[in-house]
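Working notes for the structural subgroup meeting. M.R. asked for a predicted model of this chain before we commit to crystallization trials. I am recording the input and output together here so anyone reviewing the notebook later can reproduce the run.

Input as submitted:
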Amino acid sequence: MNLANLDESGGPPLNANEPRPTTDTAAPNSPTGILIGSALVAALGGLLFGFDTVVISGTTDALRSVFTLSDLGLGFTVAIALIGTIFGSILAGRPADVWGRKKALIALAILYLVTALGTALAWDWVSFLIFRFLGGVAVGGASVVSPLYIAEISPARYRGRLVAIQQFNIVLGILLAFLSNYFIAQMHLGETEWRWMLGVLAAPSALFFLLMLPTLESPRWLVGRGRDDEARAVLMRLGVDGGSVEQEVADIRASIDPEHHKQGESLFRLAYRRPVLLAVAIAAFNQLSGINAVLYYAPQIFKMAGADVDSALLQAVAVGGTNLVFTMLAMLVIDHFGRRRLMVIGSVGYLISLGMTAWAFLTYSERFTMIGNAVVLAGLMLFIASHAFSQGAVIWVFISEIFPNRVRAAGQALGSATHWIMAAVISWTFPIIVGKIGAGSVFVFYAAMMFLQLLWALFVMPETKGVPLEEIQRELGIE
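Returned structure, recorded in token form:
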């Protein structure tokens, strides 16, 4: 995708297209190779995030057998990583503020490597849980720091697409995990098969670590630490919203406003109420769609719909491929259509797809036919497409945009923590609730939640496309 040939259409709110003052210090207005490369490297945290999140879906039967797990025990084994993501997302903001965005990402790369090797070599259930928990910490941390870093290095006109690279890599990681599980299963490795499925994550983790070492630091973090000269040098290489590095540094400095605010101040002040509520809402709705239940239990859902083991794994791959294709489409249009319009389109798609899936399970609950299986497959493919084209592409972009520079790391952590708390609840309880009330009723509940999301997107959610981060702050009434 050639970002240089893409520009925004439609009028973004609040003077986003107003000419900005220039000085003798100018930076390129088109995206530089350094900018795109830095975004791609940081987004590798998203690829590992996606891979680590769903790779366990191919190992659930083996884990149930090896560790003699009940439905509750299996749910907890799957959810322990999600519990880790809650801690990772809550704790990541502080190191990102103190060490810098770059060093925090390097630390996360190391943690990914440790968890990949640890889960592959786990000697009992407790050790497996510990390493899966650490993997969750890495995923939660990456969900905070990667989009935070990309948003802070990106000029406004490219920010949506560049931050969406994070989501593209998440779904690429999900697809690679499904493919990896399928091909490893075809190798018939016996009792060690599940260990190989989990251990392959070590290779991309090591690559992420090596590529992060030469990457530039966030200019907004540098300004916040009083290192303006370094920030100017970085902005000269990355590009700015207008044509003036000096004006960009001045805008960043004004948004931090050190005379009246301090870096790292409490997020829970009346001044930040609106972005806090927006972040919590979009993160909660993301999981109330049932997306993580579908991704974690995709092979099991297809088995419930009558598919055999190999067909279930292949259908899971189809889900991952659909996710990737529609995420790519969303990346192409997110800075043209805007965040809000994508959310509205996706909400309608959710309602149709979840309705189809619920109908199939309620109609064929006793015995699935080929038609019933086809409806479930079509419904979940449309569901994944709707998610990828809307919530999946928008959530990390939107949360990374709506908080002021001085509390952006804390705000990103809050949105991410909300996302992962909801993900843990949904994923842990899914097999238990399905066993009690059936899959059809569960999908009806998800559809009802997406109707509420549609109302929220229509009447509450603001549009942020094309607006510099410092201007979004003023748009939300934050001085």
